[in-house]
Amino acid sequence: MPVGEFDLIDRIRARARTRGDVVLGIGDDAALLQPQPGCELVVTADTLNVGVHFLEDTAPEDIGWKSLAVNLSDLAAMGASPSWCTLALALPQSDPAWLDGFIGGFLELAQSAGIALVGGDTTRGPLSISVTAMGQAPAGRAIRRSGAQVGDDLWVTGTPGDACSALHAIWAGVVPDPALRRRMNRPTPRNAAGLALVGLANSCVDISDGLLGDLGHICKASGVGAEVMLEQLPASRALSRFAPAVRWPWQASGGDDYELCFSAPAAQREAIVQAMAGAQTQATLIGRIVQGQGVIALDGDGQPWNSGRPSFQHFS
Amino acid sequence: MPVGEFDLIDRIRARARTRGDVVLGIGDDAALLQPQPGCELVVTADTLNVGVHFLEDTAPEDIGWKSLAVNLSDLAAMGASPSWCTLALALPQSDPAWLDGFIGGFLELAQSAGIALVGGDTTRGPLSISVTAMGQAPAGRAIRRSGAQVGDDLWVTGTPGDACSALHAIWAGVVPDPALRRRMNRPTPRNAAGLALVGLANSCVDISDGLLGDLGHICKASGVGAEVMLEQLPASRALSRFAPAVRWPWQASGGDDYELCFSAPAAQREAIVQAMAGAQTQATLIGRIVQGQGVIALDGDGQPWNSGRPSFQHFS
C-alpha cells in the first residue's frame, strides 16, 4: 500500500521522542528550539548513500542507526552534548516495512544519545540519507583539531580497523566475523568520551576516513607532526586473529571507524585514564605529537611504515 | 580533471562568506556558532532531487539557488532571521565547472539573505542536494501554522502559479515565457516579508506544495476553515494571459511556489500593507478564516470550485 508523504511524516513524528528544549517539533515549516545560555551551537552534516556508505543488502535498522551515528561522532569529536537533528530521507519507493525498520534503528540510537529528531524531509529518489546534527558546548570549550601541542600524547578510542576488515571480508566473498560486521553496521559514537575530554584534550578528530589520514588533519590544523606506534594500536579480539601485516592497514588507514583520535598533555595521562573509565570507553596511548609536519607510522622496529593507502576520499 | 573531496571542500570554503557569529566555520568536525541570547533557534531541512524537484537540464546556478531558496522560504514562514546553513551534496561524478556554477548560485542567494554556509558533506551518488537552514527568532515570537483565528484576513505574497505554469509549458513541449521560467528556477524566498509579519500575522505557511493544500495545514493546525476568492488571486503579467479556467489550477494548487500565505486580524490590514511595502513585497488579500474545517475555493459567482488537484505529495 503506498504511503503518502504526510502519512510518512506522521509515522516518524509518532515515534520520535522529544526534549524539554524543543519548543515546537516536527509539523510546522520549521522547528523551534531553545539553546542553552552560555553555550555555542555545534553543527555537523553527513550523508550516507547506498552502494557508497553501506552495502545494498544492509538491514534498514542498521542504515538508520549508522546515519545518525556518523553525525553523533562529529559532535563527540568536538566534545559537544548532542541536542537536536534533522533527517533528509530520499527513498526510491514507499515501503512502510523498510521505513519502520530504518526509523527504529535511527530512533534507538537517538534515544540512547539523548538527541531529538526535530524536522526533515522525505522525497522520492535513489536511497540517500542526510542528517544534520546540532549539539551544544560551553562557549570557548569545544575541542578543535587545531589545538595539538608538541609533546602531547596521542590516544585513540575503541579498536579501529574492525569495520574495514568486515568490508574486506565481504568484498572477498567471505562471511565476516559477526562482531566485526556489527562494528561496520552499528558503530558506537563516542559521545560520552568526547564530553569527558573537554578541558583535558588539546585536539580531537573522529577517524571516519581512517586513523592516519584524519590524524593528518590535526597535524595540518595545529602545525605539528605526529608519530604513531603501530604495535600499540589496539586490536579487537576478532581482529587480533589477523597477522599485523594484514591488519595494520585496516587499523591505520581503514575508513568507517567512528572512533576518536585525540591529543592531550602527558601530564593529563592519569586524568585521561580516569575520564575514559568514567565514560566506559576504551582508550589507548598510540603515539605522540612531534615537531614538523605530517604523520609517521612506525613499525615494531621503530622504522617508518607505509601502508600505501591514503585516507579515504570520495572522488579521488 | 578529477577533484578530490578535500579539494572540493576547499573550493567551497574559499568562496563562502562568513558572519560575526560563526566562531568556527567549515573545516573541523563541526562548526561552532554563537546563538543570540533571548532567541529561539529555527531549523528546517529540505532536499532537492534531480528529476523530481528540478529538470535534468537545469543550469547548475539555478539548482544551487533553488536548493537554498526552498529552505529560506521555510524560515520566512516562521518569521525567522536567516543565520546559518549546512549543505549535503551528492554528485554522480566530479565536475568542477558544474560545481562552480552550483556554488555560485547557492552563495549568491546566501549572501543576499545574510546566511552563512558553515558545513556539510560532499559524496558520490545520484545528484541530490539537502540543505538544513538555521534561523533565529525572539523567544515566543515565531509565527506558527496554529495561530489562525476566525475572522482573520487571508493574504498571499507574490504571484502564485508562475512556476507551475512554466513546468506545464515544458511538459507540453512549449518554450515557457522567460519570466515564468525564472520564477520556477529562481524563486524569491520572502524573508523580508516574514520578518515584517512578526507581531502582525496570526499564522503563516510557505506554499511550496500549492496554496490550497498548504493553507489546509493552517486550517488543520488552527482548528478553523478558510475561504479563498479565486478572482482575487494575483496573477503575474505573464500568467494573466491565460484564461482563469486555465490558470486557476496553477495559482490555487500548483506546487513549487515559495510564496507565503498568512492570516492576520482585519484590524491589522493597514499595518500589513505598510509592512509589506517596507519589505518591498507584493501581498494580496485573497480570503478569510472562517469557522469549520478545510479550505473552500470560491469562483467569481461565489460558488465552490474544485480544481481536481490535491496538494502535491511525494509517494502519493
TrEMBL record, chains A, B:
<keyword id="KW-0460">Magnesium</keyword>
<keyword id="KW-0067">ATP-binding</keyword>
<feature type="binding site">
    <location>
        <position position="74"/>
    </location>
    <ligand>
        <name>Mg(2+) 2</name>
    </ligand>
</feature>
<keyword id="KW-0479">Metal-binding</keyword>
<feature type="binding site">
    <location>
        <position position="46"/>
    </location>
    <ligand>
        <name>Mg(2+) 2</name>
    </ligand>
</feature>
<dbReference type="InterPro" id="IPR036921">
    <property type="entry name" value="PurM-like_N_sf"/>
</dbReference>
<feature type="binding site">
    <location>
        <position position="74"/>
    </location>
    <ligand>
        <name>Mg(2+) 4</name>
    </ligand>
</feature>
<feature type="binding site">
    <location>
        <position position="46"/>
    </location>
    <ligand>
        <name>Mg(2+) 1</name>
    </ligand>
</feature>
<feature type="binding site">
    <location>
        <position position="44"/>
    </location>
    <ligand>
        <name>Mg(2+) 4</name>
    </ligand>
</feature>
<protein>
    <recommendedName>
        <fullName>Thiamine-monophosphate kinase</fullName>
        <ecNumber>2.7.4.16</ecNumber>
    </recommendedName>
</protein>
<dbReference type="Pfam" id="PF02769">
    <property type="entry name" value="AIRS_C"/>
</dbReference>
<feature type="binding site">
    <location>
        <position position="29"/>
    </location>
    <ligand>
        <name>Mg(2+) 4</name>
    </ligand>
</feature>
<keyword id="KW-0808">Transferase</keyword>
<feature type="binding site">
    <location>
        <position position="74"/>
    </location>
    <ligand>
        <name>Mg(2+) 3</name>
    </ligand>
</feature>
<comment type="function">
    <text>Catalyzes the ATP-dependent phosphorylation of thiamine-monophosphate (TMP) to form thiamine-pyrophosphate (TPP), the active form of vitamin B1.</text>
</comment>
<dbReference type="GO" id="GO:0000287">
    <property type="term" value="F:magnesium ion binding"/>
</dbReference>
<dbReference type="InterPro" id="IPR036676">
    <property type="entry name" value="PurM-like_C_sf"/>
</dbReference>
<comment type="similarity">
    <text>Belongs to the thiamine-monophosphate kinase family.</text>
</comment>
<keyword id="KW-0418">Kinase</keyword>
<feature type="binding site">
    <location>
        <position position="206"/>
    </location>
    <ligand>
        <name>Mg(2+) 3</name>
    </ligand>
</feature>
<feature type="domain" description="PurM-like N-terminal">
    <location>
        <begin position="27"/>
        <end position="136"/>
    </location>
</feature>
<feature type="binding site">
    <location>
        <begin position="120"/>
        <end position="121"/>
    </location>
    <ligand>
        <name>ATP</name>
    </ligand>
</feature>
<keyword id="KW-0784">Thiamine biosynthesis</keyword>
<feature type="binding site">
    <location>
        <position position="29"/>
    </location>
    <ligand>
        <name>Mg(2+) 3</name>
    </ligand>
</feature>
<dbReference type="GO" id="GO:0009228">
    <property type="term" value="P:thiamine biosynthetic process"/>
</dbReference>
<dbReference type="GO" id="GO:0009229">
    <property type="term" value="P:thiamine diphosphate biosynthetic process"/>
</dbReference>
<dbReference type="GO" id="GO:0005524">
    <property type="term" value="F:ATP binding"/>
</dbReference>
<dbReference type="InterPro" id="IPR006283">
    <property type="entry name" value="ThiL-like"/>
</dbReference>
<feature type="binding site">
    <location>
        <position position="209"/>
    </location>
    <ligand>
        <name>Mg(2+) 5</name>
    </ligand>
</feature>
<keyword id="KW-0547">Nucleotide-binding</keyword>
<dbReference type="GO" id="GO:0009030">
    <property type="term" value="F:thiamine-phosphate kinase activity"/>
</dbReference>
<dbReference type="Pfam" id="PF00586">
    <property type="entry name" value="AIRS"/>
</dbReference>
<feature type="binding site">
    <location>
        <position position="256"/>
    </location>
    <ligand>
        <name>substrate</name>
    </ligand>
</feature>
<comment type="pathway">
    <text>Cofactor biosynthesis; thiamine diphosphate biosynthesis; thiamine diphosphate from thiamine phosphate: step 1/1.</text>
</comment>
<feature type="binding site">
    <location>
        <position position="208"/>
    </location>
    <ligand>
        <name>ATP</name>
    </ligand>
</feature>
<feature type="domain" description="PurM-like C-terminal">
    <location>
        <begin position="149"/>
        <end position="295"/>
    </location>
</feature>
<feature type="binding site">
    <location>
        <position position="53"/>
    </location>
    <ligand>
        <name>substrate</name>
    </ligand>
</feature>
<feature type="binding site">
    <location>
        <position position="121"/>
    </location>
    <ligand>
        <name>Mg(2+) 1</name>
    </ligand>
</feature>
<dbReference type="InterPro" id="IPR010918">
    <property type="entry name" value="PurM-like_C_dom"/>
</dbReference>
<feature type="binding site">
    <location>
        <position position="312"/>
    </location>
    <ligand>
        <name>substrate</name>
    </ligand>
</feature>
<feature type="binding site">
    <location>
        <position position="145"/>
    </location>
    <ligand>
        <name>ATP</name>
    </ligand>
</feature>
<dbReference type="InterPro" id="IPR016188">
    <property type="entry name" value="PurM-like_N"/>
</dbReference>
